[in-house]
Amino acid sequence: MIPRERVLAALDRKPVDRVPFVEISVAFGISEKLLDRRLSSVSIPPLPFMKIRTAEDDKALSRLIRRDHITYRLFAPTFSESPKATGGQSFVGDGIIKTLDDFRKHFHLPDPEDEGLYEPLKAFTGRKEEFGVIFSTRLGFISTVISIGFQTYLEALYLDPELIDAVTRAYVDWYGKVIRRACEMGVDAVFTADDFAFGSGPLMSPDSFRTKVLPSLKRASKEISVPWILHTDGNILPLVEDLLAMGIKGIHPLDPNCMDIRAFKQKYGRRVCILGNVNVETLTAGTAEETYAETRDLIRDLAPGDGYILSSGNSIPEYARIENVQALVRAHEDFADCQNI
């Protein structure tokens, strides 16, 4: 199998020749350390804050770490404060769209029909070679929450539904259009990142999720015409049936800090492909030996029965230890055919 075939077969829960490895987000600095050279980034003029590797560099990274895909990322801007920690790391602060007046004054998204959004994608789909192209984006939920602010969002669900509707509609319409265009351009799968839960459970009651959030998710997701991988952190068990009913092919990452990926595979593995979940805490604060063992054990326990793809428990951030990332890659290489465990 070539990598693209391997990923698509696993998402369809069919047998593969070796466990695929999908890592949507590998931080720029980590990529440079792995490749041992400086990398240039793709320019997306309508979205100057986006920083992604070129198609050629992404293929080079995938060949080095035996990843089965390349990734094109496209996120709409969000509207929030951006506090910085020591070292310049930025974090999401409180949202600034608190009222409809704020929405009218400050909320603006680039034209989803702007060719500048898609011109760089042509290099990914047109020169993907053996790799699958995964289009990484959102459906609009978490962008809405970030722009309004978490506390205000939850209050506004009941006190100011017009604000929620205005911001949600703007994001959902935008993401629906860019997803449709990306699918038309030949991406092989869509990966949407919208967090729906804390470690303790959903961000809101399941009933509120079904009535106030799910309809908008369905509006955006109907534009997905290729296999769909859904990412959400947190304990999503109360929402699983709702998410599966939308037609997802894969679910990522089954948060290792609050969910049992092995139990999830046993219960739902015949209905959806499982992607995950080498703990980011292990990658950033553990040892190479711990990372290697954790990766080996995930493959050993989850590969049987098909429908499993190795991935981190979220992403590979800038502050991951390079020796731990290399240990993950080494363990995958050693055990991906499941014959030596």
Write structural notes for this entry.
There is one protein chain. The chain is 43% helix and 11% strand. It has helices spanning 3-11, 28-35, 55-65, 100-106, 121-126, 141-148, 150-159, 161-184, 206-221, 240-245, 261-268, 280-285, 288-302, 322-335, and strands at 41-42, 52-53, 69-73, 132-137, 189-193, 228-231, 250-252, 273-278, 308-312. Strand 5, helix 9 and strand 6 form a beta-alpha-beta unit. Helix 7 (150-159) crosses helix 8.
Adjacency order of strands in the biggest sheet = 3-4-5-6-7-8-9
Please trace the helix and strand order, writing H or E for each element. HHEEHEHHEHHHEHEHEHEHHEH
Q: In what range is the share of β-strand residues?
A: 5-15%
Helix segment tally: 14
Structural class: alpha/beta
CATH class: Alpha Beta
Second CATH tier, the architecture:
Alpha-Beta Barrel
Number of strands: 9
